[in-house]
Write a structure and sequence with these properties.
alpha/beta; Rossmann fold; six-stranded mixed sheet
Length: 244
């Protein structure tokens, strides 16, 4: 089943520590499935490009999917795509979930394989696009990243499905907020939408329609330039079922 209009869930969360497994899919991942309007067993595709398609993580994600009741598949690009028809493979899914890691490397690899245009068509077809950290920033014009080294730097060559900047891990990494403010104030980034850890932003088309959270006390933010200065507005998210 596909959504009636293009939908993105961009997050700084999605994973909880597991009891008998390394991790479990948290309420944010389950919300991505809910947004897809799935009536049967959810079909979810995981992309681990930003982490180099690590074999170990794929196995842990498979265990998390088993517990969640998802049919999980993986699109791998290292050392070659693991399917012949990438676009058709993605169109068969209800949700595409992109993991964290290096957003700069992710974007470079995706461009080599022409995935920018593919993802636009998949998004327009109604498959929910979602992800965490690098898997959030990728859908926007750009954001802040440690892809280039320990000191945060801007990345401005995102896919641009959403015409905003994106700030992830806004509360847990002290350098994130001041860098976002500086980049918005000087015009390096457009109006930027940010998430504390555990928070996700929901878009229908390119419109921000709400924020959701799997952790208490967290928030989302809109940072925009006003008279050459960055102005931040806090958005209170809706707590998802199963939040902690």
């Amino acid at each position: 089943m596909t959504t009636p209009e293009p939908t993105i869930l961009a997050t700084s969360g999605g994973y909880f520590s597991g009891v008998r497994t390394s991790f479990e899919f948290g309420p944010l991942v389950h919300h991505a499935v809910d947004l897809a309007g799935v009536t049967g067993r959810p079909r979810v595709c995981h992309l681990g490009t930003a982490g180099g398609d690590q074999t170990g993580f794929r196995g842990e994600a498979d265990e998390a999917a088993r517990l969640a009741g998802f049919d999980l598949v993986h699109l791998r690009l290292f050392s070659m795509p693991n399917v012949d028809d990438v676009e058709g493979f993605l169109l068969d899914q209800d949700v595409v979930w992109v993991g964290g890691g290096s957003v700069a490397n992710l974007l470079a690899v995706w461009r080599v394989h022409g995935l920018g245009a593919v993802f636009r068509r998949v998004w327009e077809a109604g498959v929910v696009l979602a992800g965490v950290s690098a898997g959030s920033i990728c859908w926007y014009v750009g954001g802040t990243t440690d892809s280039f080294g320990p000191e945060l730097r801007p990345v401005t060559d995102g896919l641009g499905l959403l015409p905003f900047g994106n700030g992830v891990h806004y509360d847990s990494e002290a350098a994130r907020r001041p860098l976002v403010h500086r980049l918005v104030a000087d015009g390096s980034l457009p109006t930027t939408h940010c998430t504390d850890d555990g928070v996700g932003l929901v878009y229908r088309g390119t419109e921000l329609v709400g924020a959701v959270s799997e952790r208490a006390g967290q928030a989302a933010y809109v940072v925009q330039a006003v008279d050459g200065a960055a102005v931040e507005e806090r958005i209170e998210p809706v707590a998802l079922p199963g939040s902690r």
